[in-house]
Design goal:
Order of helices and strands: EHEHHHEHEHE
Strand content: 15-25%
Structural class: alpha/beta
CATH class: Alpha Beta
Number of helices: 6
Radius of gyration: 21 Å
Number of strands: 5
Strand order of the largest sheet: 3-2-1-4-5
Number of domains: 1
CATH topology: Rossmann fold
Shape: globular
CATH superfamily: HUPs
Distance between the termini: 26 Å
Helix content: 40-55%
Largest sheet: 5 strands, parallel
CATH architecture: 3-Layer(aba) Sandwich
């Protein structure tokens, strides 16, 4: 059985490991997924604004504010690019949000894959991953942060309502 655990890093590790390993069984596979919200529109807007700025008339502070000494505008030529920086950021977020869960699942003997995806809408990105990965069941945590969602946060509510596979919601303990 293939189990998908969708987490933002706040899920109780012990509970998630207990249920996910039981569902997956000895021959199953577990994928841990986290979605990092990145507003690409904001990045494009900021880059456009930064690129349109004129360098100051006096460049005494150039070394402190990152303006190129030759008076050029835009990012420093050594900038690796937005996609590379976002990939680094995603990797950092993946590690921070999933490392404890991944370690605990491996210690329990589970076959585990971990990935991070970028998305402005976490529920939409998770549902897209469900369509691609085709898990047998999804495990999510409840947060109770929404006023109208009761005990389930808005992302959990969307997943429970829209997922093509069964969804196990783990309550906070």
């Amino acid at each position: 059985m293939h189990v998908l655990i969708a987490t933002d890093g706040t899920m109780d590790t012990g509970t998630a490991v207990r249920f996910a390993t039981a569902l997956a069984g000895p021959d199953g596979h577990i994928t841990v997924l986290t979605v990092v919200e990145v507003n690409r529109t904001l990045l494009r807007d900021l880059r456009a604004i930064y690129g349109e700025r004129h360098p100051p008339a006096i460049d005494q502070d150039a070394e402190y504010v990152g303006i190129r000494p030759e008076g050029g505008t835009g990012p420093d030529p050594s900038w690796p690019g937005d996609d590379e920086m976002l990939a680094r950021y995603l990797d950092q977020q993946r590690a921070g949000r999933t490392a404890a869960l991944e370690d605990a699942l491996r210690a329990a003997g589970a076959d585990v894959a971990v990935e991070a995806r970028e998305g402005e809408d976490p529920a939409g990105a998770i549902l897209a991953a469900v369509g691609q990965l085709e898990p047998d069941v999804m495990v999510v945590g409840s947060h109770g942060s929404g006023l109208f969602e009761g005990l389930l946060g808005s992302t959990g509510t969307k997943l429970a309502r829209r997922s093509p596979c069964p969804v196990l919601v783990l309550r906070k303990e």
